[in-house]
Inverse folding.
């Protein structure tokens, strides 16, 4: 935003699975990002193949500093891809890049493949700068930031809703679970994982649960996202196989799953349309319609009462009326 | 340092911005203000920041010729953040331009820097001022120590400055003027009955939905319930409160005055509804 020295044209985006998935699509990567509501083995198994976990969190203002959460060691000899976060607001996309850069034989579009080979062998700082100076990547990232920030930009409004989330990626690299945090000097190695059906996720769960447990109660807001294969193609081929084999009851289970997955995609597409849209004309059209229907005055009176109550309640709480919006 | 013996060399609308402690972030402060360069009665050059709401001169820096400069913060994404810096110290004061239009930023800054360099010069102003502009605040040109009579253009600029500064202080004399917010008007509780009772109004709203969603009442309902729409309403509400949206609201077919506050905007929309509603949209129920 305005006065923001270090954003280099990167805008703040929402940390939402629909936003990440759209970004992956632009990158030509056939993966999606899903919300993860639980770290239980069963819910993780349902999302396999699962390539990386993205842990995003922020501390609440009541706490001071981050507790020591380290259960691993810095690995200055990290053999994979690691970029520092060199500009603000790019953290979401950078986390995705840190994950994608470490997935062996990643299917991707030509621009991403070029960028990955261009950054091979760079130190984390240079790599971060190379990534964040890629215009096409910045445009892909900015595509889903609210355009109101553009049309109202000249006013330099202080943003009150800016949520400074921090993004950390966990994923397996060469037999170990790694934590990639663009604000840390090096990747953190959390040890080798055992060969088991659960694989790297067992170790990752331990590390993340330990991390969450280190924060005082209520001091941490976080969510977990899963980077996984797009399940639609395999669901579709599975459905065809079951239908061909006449296994109708199993096929109908897949049909339910497919329709849930499609409903989710439809919701993401709708929300992304809303994210790209400048709503100012709609605000005007709606108010105009209220005016034509003759209900604008009543709505104004109602809004005044609501504001009055709000201001009084704030005064009671001793917050004064400094922040009236 | 108000006194008739002081002499305002230049003034423009600008707010202050502050560095977030321990970082390189600079956050603009919302207070409406003005930067003034003044020849004080002490004979020294003062750089003054005045709060346009309270009239208080909250910052008054004595400058020595050639020591200070006013430069654009190039890292600023929106491009209207400036820093006052000094050769003699590491002090930094940040400002952001508050004139509705960016058109004269360079002119203000150029003249400011020339005056910082040499307070004796007479600033050169672009005389192609729009007629009856109330959204810009052209500075008063100094008559200067030479005693040259002000030109009619300079007088017009002066009048316009006084009018616009006076207008904003009158508006601010009623701090409760905007005691309602758009977010409390555009609620589902207010809008959904409208969609059912006046379906004939919907076709005029649909074109303002995102282009890739189906133009249906269902889309409209989902949109007004979405966090994205609510955030946009909140942003627009806050932007209106700056009183600086004159240029923007013209694109909605509203008079510039509608951009001076939430109440003014709603009044203008109401008038527009009455105008348009008097024609073929007349309600019969």
């Amino acid at each position: 935003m305005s006065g923001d020295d270090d954003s280099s044209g990167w805008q703040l985006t929402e940390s939402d699975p629909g936003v990440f998935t759209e970004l992956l699509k632009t990158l030509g990567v056939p993966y999606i990002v899903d919300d993860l509501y639980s770290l239980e083995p069963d819910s993780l198994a349902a999302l396999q193949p699962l390539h990386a976990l993205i842990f995003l969190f922020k501390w609440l203002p009541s706490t001071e500093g981050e507790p020591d959460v380290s259960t691993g060691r810095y690995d200055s000899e990290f053999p994979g891809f690691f970029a520092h976060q060199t500009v603000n607001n790019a953290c979401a996309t950078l986390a995705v890049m840190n994950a994608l850069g470490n997935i062996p034989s990643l299917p991707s579009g030509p621009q991403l493949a070029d960028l990955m080979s261009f950054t091979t062998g760079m130190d984390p700082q240079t790599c971060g700068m190379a990534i964040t100076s890629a215009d096409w990547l910045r445009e892909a990232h900015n595509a889903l930031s609210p355009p109101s920030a553009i049309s109202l930009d000249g006013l330099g409004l202080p943003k009150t809703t800016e949520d400074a989330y921090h993004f950390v990626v966990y994923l397996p690299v060469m037999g170990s679970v790694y934590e990639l945090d663009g604000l840390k000097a090096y990747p953190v190695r959390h040890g080798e994982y055992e060969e088991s059906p659960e694989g790297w996720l067992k170790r990752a769960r331990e590390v993340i649960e330990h991390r969450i447990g280190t924060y005082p109660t209520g001091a941490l807001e976080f969510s977990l996202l899963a980077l996984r294969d797009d399940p639609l193609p395999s669901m579709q081929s599975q459905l065809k196989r079951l239908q061909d084999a006449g296994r109708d009851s199993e096929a109908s289970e897949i049909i339910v799953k497919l329709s849930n997955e499609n409903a989710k995609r439809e919701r993401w597409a709708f929300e992304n349309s809303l994210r790209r849209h400048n709503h100012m004309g709609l605000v005007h059209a709606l108010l105009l319609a209220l005016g034509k229907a003759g209900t604008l005055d009543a709505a104004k009176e109602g809004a005044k009462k609501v504001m009055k109550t709000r201001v009084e309640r704030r005064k009671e709480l001793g917050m004064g009326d400094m922040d009236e919006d | 340092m108000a006194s008739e013996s002081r002499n305002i060399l230049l003034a423009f609308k600008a707010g202050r911005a502050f560095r977030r402690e321990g970082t390189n972030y600079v956050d603009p402060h919302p207070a409406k203000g003005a930067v003034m360069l003044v020849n004080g009665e002490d004979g020294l050059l003062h750089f003054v920041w005045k709060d346009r709401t309270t009239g208080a001169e909250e910052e008054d820096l004595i400058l020595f010729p050639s020591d200070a400069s006013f430069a654009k913060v190039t890292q600023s994404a929106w491009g209207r953040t400036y820093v006052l810096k000094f050769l003699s110290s590491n002090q930094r004061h940040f400002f952001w331009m508050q004139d509705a239009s960016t058109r004269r930023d360079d002119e203000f800054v150029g003249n400011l820097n020339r005056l910082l360099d040499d307070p004796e010069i007479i600033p050169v102003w672009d005389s192609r001022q729009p007629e009856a502009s109330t959204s810009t605040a052209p500075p008063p040109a100094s008559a200067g120590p030479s005693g040259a009579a002000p030109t009619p253009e300079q007088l017009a600029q002066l009048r316009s400055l006084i009018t616009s500064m006076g207008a904003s202080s009158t508006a601010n004399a009623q701090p409760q003027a905007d005691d309602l917010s758009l977010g409390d008007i555009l609620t589902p509780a207010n809008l959904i009955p409208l969609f059912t009772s006046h379906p004939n109004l919907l076709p005029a709203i649909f074109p303002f939905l995102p282009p890739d969603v189906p133009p249906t009442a269902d889309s409209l309902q989902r949109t007004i319930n979405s966090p994205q729409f609510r955030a946009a309403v909140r942003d627009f509400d806050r932007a209106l409160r700056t009183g600086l949206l004159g240029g923007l609201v013209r694109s909605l077919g509203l008079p510039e005055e509608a951009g001076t506050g939430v109440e003014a905007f709603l009044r203008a929309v109401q008038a527009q509804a009455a105008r348009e509603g008097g024609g073929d949209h007349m309600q019969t129920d």
About this structure: Chain B touches chain A through 77 residues (CB under 8 Å). The first strand of chain B starts at residue 7 and ends at 19. The CA atoms of residues 114 and 121 of chain B lie 7 Å apart. Chain B is about 35% helix and 20% strand.
